[in-house]
Amino acid sequence: MADPPSSDEEGSSASEKHTRVQVHTGKGLKENLHQFITARRSKLRLLTTKSNQIEGLMEDDNNVIHVEQIEVKGYKKLYEEFVELNQSLKLYLREDEIEADQTSWFEPKASCCRDFMERVKTWIEDIQLCENLIMTSVKDITPMDSVSNVSSQISSATSVRRREEANKATLIARAAALKKKRAIALKEVQLRADQEQLEIDTELAALAARLKIYADYDALQQQSSAIAMSQPCQQGDIEGQIRYEASVPSLKHQEREAKSIIGQMFGNLLEFTAAKEKIDITQHAKPEEERGSSFVKNATPVKTERFNRQMSKADTIHPNGAFTKPCLFCERNRTLEECQKMIKSSRKDKFEFLKKSGLCFGCLAKGHASKDCKKRMTCSVC
């Protein structure tokens, strides 16, 4: 049978049990965290109830001793327990969770509790100050003193206390408003930052979409090119392309020759018309003395002064209808250059009329285009 353990061994085993560190599982940690959160909230409710009770007692100045000796001590004890529970709760939180919890929950509540205790302390001091003034005034009263003087001193002390309480309440209200204002400013800054971030994210998304479209299009183009390159080229297609490329210079040469021939044809037609009109004029303008024998006429043609005047007049007559009567535009007994209706018409109407009548834009003559005109005229009106 083994010997019973000695008192030293029992003490060492007890100390080992006392110093042993408990290792909690995840579930145990979660349960402990929940318990501390519940306990802290319960303690805060007790503090709120106690503060309401003290507020009711502070309405009567005669309760100052009861508030100072009993209620304030109880409130301070509850506040200390509230702080201890908060410290214990912090052991189960991460660093980021601690900062968020203390900033958003614990610090505002603790600040309200401290402000309340300070307000109660000021109230007690004011009451004690008034009582001291009353006691001093009573001690200093002599038979010569009047009741009105004592009452005046008491009322002055009461007025001072009320005024200080009003100033303190004003400062507390301003501090609360400042906190709200700061919170609103922080929210506005955060909102602007979120809005800017949203705009940047939207632009990035749009850019990514465009790049994807471009990439898909490039891939499609490369695929089409690869398919086209992989298709076998027919011999007939190659020969047709070679014949076409070889015929291009000859086609251009034929086009230039056709333009030249057309210009020559219309130019010769114009010269032929002008020459024919000159011949008709000379035939009608021959003098009587020139009508002799055919031998003399053919051998030595004589050009008299009258014949020369008629020939010079014939040279001034244009071989087209633009400078003859009637007018081609209004069909009245005047030339086109004298037509007021033509002058007053718009530039577009003039252009359409010249194009429709087949007249050259440079000399208003028929038979050739403006680019081939060799007798360009200048308008005397514009």
From TrEMBL:
One GO MF annotation is: zinc ion binding
Segments of skewed composition (Acidic residues)? 1-11
Q: Which residues form the CCHC-type domain?
A: 360-375
Q: Where is this region: Disordered?
A: 1-24
* InterPro entries, alphabetized: Znf_CCHC (IPR001878)
UniProt key word RNA-binding: no
PROSITE patterns given in the database record: ZF_CCHC
This protein's UniProt keywords: Metal-binding, Zinc, Zinc-finger
Question: What PANTHER family is this protein classified in?
Answer: PEPTIDASE S1 DOMAIN-CONTAINING PROTEIN, PHD-TYPE DOMAIN-CONTAINING PROTEIN
**What is the protein named?**
CCHC-type domain-containing protein
Q: Which organism is it from?
A: Solea senegalensis (Senegalese sole)
